[in-house]
Q: What sequence folds into this?
């Protein structure tokens, strides 16, 4: 009998031990989490898509829903549930008993006010009127059906309204009386939301201090969060090592990821997202208006060796624009579009007017000097593009890389003052549409590509609610785009956050920084 | 003196007008456009960006934009930042104090190092002290400030952990804490000035010490310190003061880089971000403030001449 009791006791101890090992230590309350930010000039809503500003706002304000850290699908936040009764209507049920922060210039201490559907309507309208950074698409109406229900109607079916990290997910729920009383500029100096942290103080481009909202619907472990502005990426790394900060949300210098990984004091956390990096063509300019020439140029590039030499394991080869982390449209079968065959490339170019006329070792086009200048902005891709340009030069194509100031690069791209350029996207859900839809010429479609067939597929895809239908159309459009070699996909670069080991349950931001959510709750270990 | 001051202040008006015109024209003709930067963003709201462009008058020719800008400036309105849609004057107001603190602290450090070192180097000519001062001055002048800044951060901030690596504490900053944060950026910014002033002080002191009045003072039994500081130094000080005034302008320019390295939110960092974004009203505002500061310091130097050298009279 004693033996049996002892066995039971031993099993219980073992179970408890395994539980602790499996689920980690008990969360501890207290402490200030210090998060590095590159720039934090203003807290004005929707003026810029800069990560630091939106990350700070996402812990002050609640949005209707957040995107799951696992699959980037929407999960409830301020909205408990939502439905799509017909393709043009979305109905959101607002959580009851959620209050705006008090103890501020609008709500005195103890006079907090409950969030209602009217606040959500006001917040969505405010975003649509004032935002230059984000768009909600063709929303035709927003109204409160009752105190806790909001209805949004759209001109065409709009599944992206909820599954894109940059649409409804970006709407911060704000109190109307705060904007009325403080004005837009004043509200930016004293933002009032419903999120897990309340505004305490802000010094532009220096720091932002937020304190725990003790009445948040999920118990908040951290006492405060401080965003510390350190513009230089190297200085951010030094600050993390010296203990001045606890978190680098976005590690700009990928080479640092390896050194942090080797250091037992820090944890490198791979984000679920990343970015698309490729080469784009302005398809309206000769000879790049000829798909055969674009295809031939792609044949000269040994992309695998180029990107691996630069970013190693911190990325993966791209065969299309849609990355694997987007829940629809990723198509590895596009691999068959890309072959490394310089000999065949030369033949195609020869058949299209390319010949070394003057014997200088470089091809001329229609008997005139031909030079490829790949315009790019600074970043890890410069090294990869330089390797690829060298590969082209070795095969007789006079290619070089021109690194430009970001504003110049963007201006050249938007105004079509380019031939070949570095093609970049955060590779979010609508990134593919922005880069290749004809309606986006003059903004994000810097290829000046306008294929009615692709436009039609993308328009139709935007109306599909079911991911499998959407995915199928997205893949068809993607295949058409890359069969046309509008661009040459190079690689998807992973994104990393680095945290001090004492920071527990941190999730790298995607569509906002979630420090306290139904999926994670950050706390500081001793 | 009053007439002189009034004349000097009046002459600054065309100078500032010229600066504002040149900066406006240069930035307008420079490649890059803030609206394109917004439009290139894949999540952009094209309609609202077009509205913003019209609101800020960016759809007009540059000379019309300049005329509107100057009209507003005369009423004290420096316009709104394109990137943040915030009043430029307010943004500058938030930052100017930090830049002043940094430059003044850098000047103080530069003077504390340069004057004694230069005087001593002159007094002990061709000694080990003189050679060391010369070598130190050369290092200060020749080492790029961004490099020196990083070295100081790595050594004093990371390796020894003695000093913070940022230029400003965010909250609850006592004066002592603020000074502690300013030490590394100020040394970095002031090192070049210290080097130049050390060399200049030494040269001017040597010249003054070779003059008859210095020799006479020495012959009359004046102590060495008395000769150095009572007779030679006041005569050597005018060129040092002029160079100091000129160098103040360099310090303001240098703040652009130092503030970025040390994460010090001042006018330099603001100007840097404005240039990156081609935020014309913000660039114009920061440059004008820099220009006004420089002109004011030069005027102050001219006024100080009168007090330092009684022979100088402006009337």
A:
């Amino acid at each position: 009998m004693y033996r049996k009791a002892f066995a039971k006791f031993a099993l219980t101890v073992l179970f408890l031990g395994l539980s602790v090992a499996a689920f980690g230590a008990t969360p501890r309350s207290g402490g200030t989490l210090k998060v590095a930010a590159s720039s934090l000039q203003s807290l004005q809503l929707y003026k810029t898509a800069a990560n630091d500003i939106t990350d700070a706002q996402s812990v002050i304000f609640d949005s209707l829903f957040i995107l799951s850290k696992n699959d980037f699908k929407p999960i409830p936040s301020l909205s408990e549930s939502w439905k799509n009764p017909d393709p043009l209507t979305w109905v959101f049920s607002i959580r009851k008993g959620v209050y705006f922060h008090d103890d501020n210039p609008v709500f005195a201490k103890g006079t907090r006010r409950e969030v209602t559907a009217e606040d959500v309507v006001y917040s969505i309208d405010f975003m649509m009127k004032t935002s230059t950074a984000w768009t909600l698409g063709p929303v035709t109406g927003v109204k409160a059906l009752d105190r806790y229900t909001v209805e949004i109607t759209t001109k065409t079916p709009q599944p992206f309204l909820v599954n894109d990290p940059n649409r409804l997910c970006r709407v911060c729920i704000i109190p109307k009386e705060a904007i009325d009383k403080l004005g837009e500029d004043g509200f930016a100096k004293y933002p009032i939301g419903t999120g897990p942290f309340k505004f305490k103080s802000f010094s532009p481009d220096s720091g932002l201090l937020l304190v725990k909202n003790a009445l948040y619907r999920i118990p908040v472990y951290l006492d405060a969060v401080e965003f510390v502005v350190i513009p230089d990426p190297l200085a951010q790394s030094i600050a993390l090592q010296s203990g001045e900060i606890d978190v680098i949300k976005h590690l700009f210098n990928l080479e640092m990821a390896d050194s942090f990984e080797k250091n037992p004091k820090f944890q490198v956390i791979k984000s679920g997202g990343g970015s698309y990096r490729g080469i784009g063509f302005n398809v309206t300019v000769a000879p790049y208006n000829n798909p055969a020439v674009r295809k031939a140029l792609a044949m000269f590039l040994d992309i695998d060796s180029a990107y691996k030499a630069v970013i190693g394991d911190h990325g993966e080869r791209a065969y299309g624009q849609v990355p694997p982390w987007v829940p629809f449209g990723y198509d590895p079968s596009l691999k068959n579009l890309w072959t490394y065959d310089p000999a065949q490339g030369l033949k195609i170019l020869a058949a299209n007017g390319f010949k070394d006329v003057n014997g200088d070792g470089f091809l001329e086009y229609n008997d005139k000097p031909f030079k490829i200048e790949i315009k790019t902005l600074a970043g890890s891709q410069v090294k990869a593009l330089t390797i690829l340009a060298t590969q082209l030069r070795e095969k007789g194509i006079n290619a070089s890389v021109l690194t430009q100031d970001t504003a110049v690069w963007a201006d050249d791209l938007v105004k079509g003052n380019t031939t070949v350029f570095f093609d970049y996207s955060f590779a979010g859900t609508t990134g593919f549409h922005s880069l290749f839809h004809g309606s986006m010429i003059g903004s994000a479609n810097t290829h000046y590509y306008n294929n009615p067939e692709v436009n039609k597929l993308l328009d139709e895809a935007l109306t599909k609610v079911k991911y499998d239908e959407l995915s199928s159309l997205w893949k068809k459009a993607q295949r058409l785009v890359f069969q046309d070699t509008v661009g040459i996909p190079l690689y998807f670069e992973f994104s990393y956050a680095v945290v001090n080991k004492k920071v527990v349950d941190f999730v790298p931001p995607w569509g906002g920084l979630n420090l306290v959510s139904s999926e994670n709750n950050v706390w500081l270990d001793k | 003196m009053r007439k002189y001051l009034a004349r000097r202040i009046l002459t600054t008006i065309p100078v500032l007008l010229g600066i504002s015109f040149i900066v406006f024209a240069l930035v307008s003709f420079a490649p890059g456009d803030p609206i394109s930067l917004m439009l290139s963003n894949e999540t952009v709201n094209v309609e609202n960006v077009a509205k913003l462009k019209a609101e800020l008058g960016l759809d007009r020719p540059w000379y019309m934009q300049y005329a509107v800008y100057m009209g507003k400036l005369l009423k004290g309105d420096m316009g709104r930042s394109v990137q943040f849609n915030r009043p430029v004057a307010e943004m500058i107001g938030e930052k100017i104090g930090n830049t002043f603190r940094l430059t003044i602290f850098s000047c103080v450090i530069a003077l504390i190092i340069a004057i004694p070192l230069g005087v001593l180097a002159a007094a002990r000519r061709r000694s080990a002290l003189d050679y060391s001062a010369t070598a130190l001055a050369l290092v200060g002048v020749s080492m790029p400030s961004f490099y020196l800044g990083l070295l100081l951060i790595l050594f004093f901030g990371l390796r020894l952990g003695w000093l913070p690596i940022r230029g400003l504490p965010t909250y609850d900053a006592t004066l002592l804490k603020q000074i502690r944060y300013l030490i590394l950026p100020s040394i970095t910014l002031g090192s070049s000035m210290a080097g130049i002033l050390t060399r200049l002080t030494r040269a001017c002191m040597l010249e003054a010490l070779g003059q008859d009045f210095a020799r006479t003072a020495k012959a009359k039994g004046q102590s060495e310190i008395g000769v150095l500081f009572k007779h030679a130094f006041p005569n050597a000080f005018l060129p040092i003061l002029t160079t100091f005034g000129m160098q103040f302008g360099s310090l303001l320019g240098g703040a652009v880089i130092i503030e970025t390295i040390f994460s010090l939110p001042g006018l330099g960092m603001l100007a840097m971000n404005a240039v990156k974004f081609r935020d014309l009203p913000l660039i114009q505002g920061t440059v004008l403030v820099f220009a006004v500061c420089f002109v004011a310091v030069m005027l102050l130097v001219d006024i100080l001449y009168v007090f330092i050298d009684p022979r100088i009279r402006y009337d």
User: Anything to note?
Assistant: Chain B has two domains: 2-74, 93-308. Residues 2-74 of chain B form one domain.
